Amino acid sequence: MTTTIEKTRLIRYKTIFISDVHLGTPDCKISEVNDFLRRTRCEKLVLNGDIIDSWHLRRKPGNWTGQHTRFIRIVLRKMEKDGTEVIYLRGNHDDELRRFMPLRISKLQICNEHIHETSQGNYIVIHGDVFDQITTHCKWLSMLGSIGYDQLLRVNRAYNWWRKIRGREYFSLSKAIKARVKQAVSYSGHYEEKLQKMARDREMRGIICGHIHTAADKDINGVHYLNSGDWVENRTAIVEHLDRRIEVISYEDFLRIVGPAPTRKLSGQPLERKLALTAS
C-alpha cells in the first residue's frame, strides 16, 4: 500500500528553548512536542532540563514508548542534517547527567547553565531547580511530591476523558488547584524573584528557566524573566525569531502559524516503517 504524507509548512527560528518534557511519563504531550520540533528549524536548540524523567522511569520503566525514542531521533537529526547546535541543561528529574558534565561532542553540549547572547544583552539559561529549596535540600520530599503530581495528572486524565465524551473542552485540574492554593502562588513569586536577582547580580539582561511548569514572559525590576513552561500540560516553548525577538509561544500559537498536524495514511505498514515515517 502506498503511504501518503501531507506536506506542511516549516517555520524557522534562530533559537528554540524547551523544558520539562518529562519523557517516560504517560502525561508527556509527546505527539505535540514531536510535531513542534519536526516542523521547525533553528540554529540552536536549548533543552532546558527535565527532558527525560528518570525519577518516573525508575518506578515505571515501561512507560517509555517508541514516540519518546522518536523525540531523541528528531533532535539527533537536527544536529546531523540541519547543523543545529544542541545545548542540554541538567534538570532535577534528569540529574544523572551530572556524571557526564561538562561534556561537548560535536554539536552537542551538556552542562548546568548556558549564556545566550543577544544584541539587547546576554541571558543566563538555567533549569532553575537550584532555587527550589525542597528540590535542593529535601530530595526525598521532592520525589514524594512528584509522585503526588503524577497521581493528580492521572485523575486529570480520567476527568478529561469524561469531559470529552460529554463534548466539553479540556480542563486542567492541576493548574486550577495551583491557582487557588496561596502557598503555590507565593512559591512562584519567590522563585521568580530569586532568579531575577541572580540575573542582576551577574549583570545579565534576563534569565530563561523552566522547572515550575508555568510559562512566563515579563519584566521584573528591569530583568527580563522568561519561563518556557512545560510539555506535560501547557505545551509551551520560548523562541527567538530571526529578527532576534524573544517570546513564549504555545503549541496552539504554533498551529495557527503552520497549520494542523499533518495527516498520514500509515495503515498496512510494518511497525518499523510507521516509526521511520513519523520521525522523518
Give a written overview of the molecule.
The protein has 280 residues and is an alpha/beta fold. 39% of the residues lie in helices and 23% in strands. It has helices at 30-38, 54-59, 66-82, 133-137, 139-165, 173-180, 182-201, 251-258, 271-279; strands spanning 11-18, 40-48, 85-89, 103-105, 108-111, 113-118, 121-126, 206-209, 216-220, 223-227, 236-240, 246-250. The strands form two sheets. A seven-stranded mixed beta sheet has the order 4-5-3-2-1-11-12. It is globular. The protein starts with 10 loop residues before the first strand and ends with a helix.
Task: Reconstruct the topology from this structure.
Layout: E1 11-18, H1 30-38, E2 40-48, H2 54-59, H3 66-82, E3 85-89, E4 103-105, E5 108-111, E6 113-118, E7 121-126, H4 133-137, H5 139-165, H6 173-180, H7 182-201, E8 206-209, E9 216-220, E10 223-227, E11 236-240, E12 246-250, H8 251-258, H9 271-279
Parallel strand pairs: 1-2, 2-3, 3-5, 7-8, 8-10
Antiparallel strand pairs: 1-11, 4-5, 6-7, 9-10, 11-12
Kindly list the characteristics that best describe this protein.
280 residues, alpha/beta, seven-stranded mixed β-sheet, five-stranded mixed β-sheet, 9 helices, 12 strands, 23% strand, disordered C terminus
Largest sheet, in brief, is: 7 strands, mixed
Tertiary shape: globular
Radius of gyration: 19 Å
- Give helix % range: 25-40%
Unreliable spans: 1-6, 134-142, 265-280
Mean pLDDT, all residues: 81
The strands making up the biggest β-sheet line up spatially as 4-5-3-2-1-11-12
The share of residues in extended strands comes to 15-25%
The SS-based structural class is alpha/beta
The oligomeric state of the chains shown is: single chain
Number of strands: 12
Following the backbone from N to C, one meets helices and strands in this order, namely EHEHHEEEEEHHHHEEEEEHH
Helix segment count?
A: 9
